Prior knowledge:
By secondary structure, this protein is an alpha/beta fold.
Amino acid sequence: MDLRHLRYYVAVAEERHFGRAAERLHMAQPPLSQAIRRLETELGVQLLDRTTRRVDLTEAGRAYLERARAILAEVDEAADLARRVAAGVVGRLAIGCVGSATYSLLPTLSRHLAAELPGVDFSFRGEMLAPDQAEGLRTGAIDVALLRPPAADPSLVVRLLRRDRLVVALPADHALAGRPRVRAADLAGTDLIVHSADRRSVMYDVVLRVLRDAGVEPRIRHEVGETSTLITLVAGGLGAAVAPEPVTALTLPGVVYLPLVQPVTTVELAVAHRADRSEPHLLRTVEVIRQMFHPPVGTGQADTDAPPAAG
């Protein structure tokens, strides 16, 4: 059935007058009258009682009006949904966050995404190591990742958001805790807590490289999978830890954070998704995240892309 005839009928039924209905529909009266006649012929029932002054509905016409309104409402709703899906403002996405981003970024990110894309249902997974995030993207367990870039992977699109400097987390009673800053060489002989090597943590390789480049052979006491556990063990006096600066958002009694000044080292934070994913709401979400770090030209900051970093 032609949906235009449904709209024509609803207009005539609500106006109870062909002339007013024609004005409402922005069409001439004769074609409107002919369309309603064709509709009645197609249905095999009389929908309207016509007089020279007004139009009344038959019992069949009243029943048909109720259903016609419901059908048109559903059609309009479907069209609106299609437009919103195409615009990337509805959908469902799971976002995985690396440990330090969980504390420093997730609270702001969740509020920003809710404000910018209120029709998208977001869920979040925190404390994910980069290899687990990459695997989650490949399997569909998560849709978007905020990660420390892994080795180049052609199945993923990875875009740089920022570079974070490293800090040293120390127990408050540690001999170095009273200093304003720490050099990598100062950590010689200090027990260390690091992210897990078995789980292929990016930070594990970074920390070992920084220390060995400074001539320090790392004395690893504990390996952990979560940044919160890393800092908790530091608070317990079990050792020191080298971590990205955003971890300082995780405040615990008994922990002191000091900048690592020699060497000055940064680690990348990036947003990633699978290269074969092109749903509008996913791409829109990635763009909203990028603009949090790289506002459009004219706001004083430049947009930056970078290839994935190794490790």
